[in-house]
Specification:
This protein has 18 helices and 6 strands. It is mainly α. The protein has one domain.
């Protein structure tokens, strides 16, 4: 078989295997899909009411959930509801959770087809293989979360930023209105892409249409509820900042974990935690702005898209994780997008950080779902593993930021009386 055929065989093997792992690994790795996505979308289709059968009592129970993002505050931006609703097109037949896996696989297949093309370009082939390894090592959370919808949109958006900037911007904006993290990709695009008007214009059109629809449906007061909901959260167990508290808990200090029933997450408290929590959001903002300013300076000095955008996008995305007080395991899928683009454009430079990212994936799956219960009890093995994972994430942030700082600026030269072509020109036909 051809290299392209082998890649497609691997694609389906990986997606089927990881989909099945969601059913057999411990600690409910598919929980978000059947516990909240199904509930929210079902209520939206049934007058705001969710009905289910109590298996113990044998009776049907109904509860008013509301129209999330419209008449009740929601943790996600409003477009996140779209894939949750679309899942029901097949969910009525095979069940909601399997239908979700099918939908994610279909979206991944569309992005994978564009990424590998005819399977002849070494960079694209390596990027496709890396993506499959990434999904396999990260495990079920790579598929069974809303973040899995935004990844193929992010890949397509980044691949089309040069040749089709309007379309690329629209896809990234749609992804941002599902989960905020692709805003980092949009910010990097505004800085690094020359056709900034197209990038800003596409994002504004999507935002205007989304907000206009939300307001027309009566949800204006909840349009940005996802921002306040995230800002008000405590320290999640998996966040890098929580590493100190996990070690304190393991060594019989005063730290401990607790469950937040509203957000369905485990969080941690300990010494000075009430001082740390309000610091984290401003710290995240400062770091992101500093990285963006560095990228803007390089763009002002005429750094090329090829050399600037991938490391800038990765630096912004990893900052969103490394300095975040939440740190859910599915956040790791975010780093796949800039790494895939980096491998596509310059595979030799990006192989080492890609390998580092695969280590982040493996350690994340070991933590969740495989040893998550032990982590909540601060047993030594998972605490050491998550410490390694968080250190690798910080290392990836540092590497990408240093690469942005070292990005070469363009000095216009002439060769034989002709201006030297811009490196971006090689992308307009291929991406």
């Amino acid at each position: 078989m051809s290299r392209r055929a082998w890649l497609w065989v691997a694609f389906f093997v990986v997606h089927v295997l990881v989909s099945v792992l969601g059913w057999i690994e411990p600690n409910e790795p598919m929980g978000d899909v059947y516990l909240v996505y199904e509930k929210w979308s079902s209520a939206f289709l049934n007058g705001g009411t969710y009905s289910y059968t109590d298996s113990l009592k044998g009776v049907t129970v109904s509860q008013y959930v509301g129209y999330v993002g419209l008449d009740v505050s929601w943790v996600y931006p409003q477009l996140a509801l779209v894939p949750m609703l679309l899942t029901w097109l097949l969910g009525w037949v095979i069940g909601y959770t399997p239908a979700w896996a099918v939908m994610v696989t279909a979206l991944d297949a569309a992005a994978f087809a564009v990424l590998i093309g005819r399977g002849r370009a070494a960079g694209r082939t390596l990027a496709g293989a890396f993506w499959l390894a990434f999904i396999l090592l990260l495990g079920p959370v790579a598929l069974y979360r809303i973040d899995a919808i935004t990844v193929p949109l992010g890949i397509l958006g980044c691949l089309w930023l040069i040749g089709r900037p309007w379309l690329g911007s629209v896809l990234l904006a749609v992804a941002t209105w599902m989960k905020v993290w692709p805003a980092a990709l949009l910010a990097a695009a505004v800085i690094a892409v020359r056709r900034r008007a197209a990038i800003v214009g596409g994002a504004l059109v999507v935002s205007a249409l989304t907000l206009g629809t939300v307001i027309l449906l009566g949800g204006g007061s909840y349009a940005f509820g996802f921002i306040s909901d995230q800002a008000g959260r405590d320290l999640q167990v998996e966040a890098p900042v929580s590493t100190f508290y996990l070690w304190d808990y393991m060594l019989d200090g005063s730290s401990a974990t607790f469950y937040d029933p509203d957000l369905l997450t485990f969080e941690i408290y300990g010494p000075y935690v009430n001082t740390v929590i309000p610091i984290m959001t401003p710290l995240l903002a400062v770091v992101v702005l500093a990285v963006a300013a560095l990228g803007a300076y390089k763009a002002w000095r005429k750094a090329s898209f090829v050399s600037l955008f991938p490391p800038l996008a990765l630096a912004l995305v990893t900052a969103f994780i490394a300095f975040n007080k939440v740190g859910s395991p599915q956040y790791i899928v975010w780093i796949s997008v800039p790494l895939i683009l980096g491998l596509t454009l310059d595979r030799r430079r990006w192989v080492k950080p890609a390998i580092l990212a695969l280590g982040i994936c493996l350690t994340t799956q070991i933590i969740y779902p495989l040893t998550y219960y032990d982590l909540l009890k601060a047993f030594p093995f998972p605490v050491v593993v998550i410490t390694i994972r968080n250190a690798l994430m910080i290392a990836l942030f540092v590497w990408s930021t240093v690469l942005v700082a070292r990005t070469r600026v363009r000095h216009r030269r002439s060769v034989g009386g002709l201006a030297e072509p811009a490196p971006e020109s090689v992308l307009t036909g291929g991406l």
